[in-house]
Amino acid sequence: MISLAGRVAVVTGGSRGIGRAIARRLAAEGADCVLTYRQQGEEARAAAAEIEALGRRTLTLPLELSEPTEVAPAFGRVDILVASAAATAFRPMLEQKPHNVRRTLAISIESFVAAVQGAARLMAGPGRIIAISGIDSFQGMTGHGMLGAAKAGVESLVRTLALELGPRGITVNGVNPGFIETDSSRYYVEQGLGRDYAEATAGLRAATPVRRLGTVEDVASLVAYLASDAAGFLTGQTLVLDGGLTIVSPLSRLEEGGRGGAP
Fold first, then answer.
1. pLDDT band at residue 74 under the 50/70/90 scheme
2. What global pTM score does this model have?
3. Alpha-carbon span 44 to 42, nearest angstrom
4. For residues 11 and 124, what is the distance between their CA atoms, to the nearest angstrom?
């Protein structure tokens, strides 16, 4: 059993996708939620309605995360901080413009630091800080160079922050989701790769040991655990949540392909 009753969670990028699912799950476990968003005001209000339907209080907060100085003053009381928001220009590295580089790093790294600085001061009891990373932090992906570098930086910060904040009763962890079924994932497959979504994801399912794709609820479940008292001895870790896909050797995939399995 996970209980977050009486706690306040701040979820950046909480208006849609993974962030929205995380906020919904934290609310289901008893937390009041603050959802930040940049442009999706209507989606943020819809997400807030879902949380209120669960009997929890909610607040939607417009924030420009590319301007990190706006982040810290925006927080009230905080028990749980989930840094889920991210953005970049999905271009090859030789086509990245200086402002694209600066904006990616500002949204993923500078704003994370500012958010932690603001939230940690308001964590009176045991605090939980959870950063959402991505597989581009340790695997090469076309068009993901800057975002991957930023997420790798966030994972490094997770370790340092865990060391520094541990004596204050604050744990800091990361969640690194694999392929999760979201609108963004569909867009990447269809528009970025020019592939048929059903065909491409069928191959992914076959190559994944648990034989399915990840869902936003899978990510939210892990975040809820990390936010709970049950995870009080776990800190400084970034957990890969991908159904086992990245543990499979290329040689194993060749063997499966030879038996008519995954390509």
1. low
2. 0.92
3. 5
4. 18
Q: Report the distance separating Cα 40 and Cα 56, nearest Å.
A: 21
How far is 173 from 166, CA to CA, in rounded Å? Answer: 11
pLDDT above 70 (res 256) = no
Give the DSSP H/E element, type plus range, for residue 154: helix 145-165
For residues 77 and 55, what is the distance between their CA atoms, to the nearest angstrom? 19
Question: How far is the C-alpha of 20 from the C-alpha of 48, rounded, in Å?
Answer: 9
Return the H-helix or E-strand segment holding 25.
Answer: helix 17-28
Find the distance separating the first CA and the last CA of the chain, reported in whole Å.
40
- pLDDT tens for 49-71 read 999 999 999 999 898 888 888 77
Quick check: 170 and 126 in contact, CB under 8 A? yes
Q: Which amino acid is at 159?
A: R
C-alpha–C-alpha distance, residues 180 and 242, integer Å: 8
Mean pLDDT, rounded, of the chain: 90
Residue 126, both tokens: 């045991």
Contacts of 148 (CB under 8 A, 6+ apart): 134, 136, 137, 138, 139, 140, 141
Q: How far apart are CA 67 and CA 46, in angstroms?
A: 25
Distance separating alpha carbons of residues 49 and 161, to the nearest angstrom = 33
The span from the CA of 185 to the CA of 102, in Å, is 24
Does 194 or 29 have the greater pLDDT score?
Answer: 29
- 30: burial class by Cβ within 10 Å (0-12, 13-18, 19+)? middle
Instruction: Determine the Cα–Cα distance for residues 38 and 179; give it in Å rounded to an integer.
Output: 24
The backbone torsions φ and ψ at residue 97, rounded to the nearest 5 degrees and listed phi first, read -90, 155
Beta-ladder partners of 131:
83, 174
List phi, psi (to 5°) of 62.
Answer: -70, 130
- Give the model's pLDDT for residue 262: 46
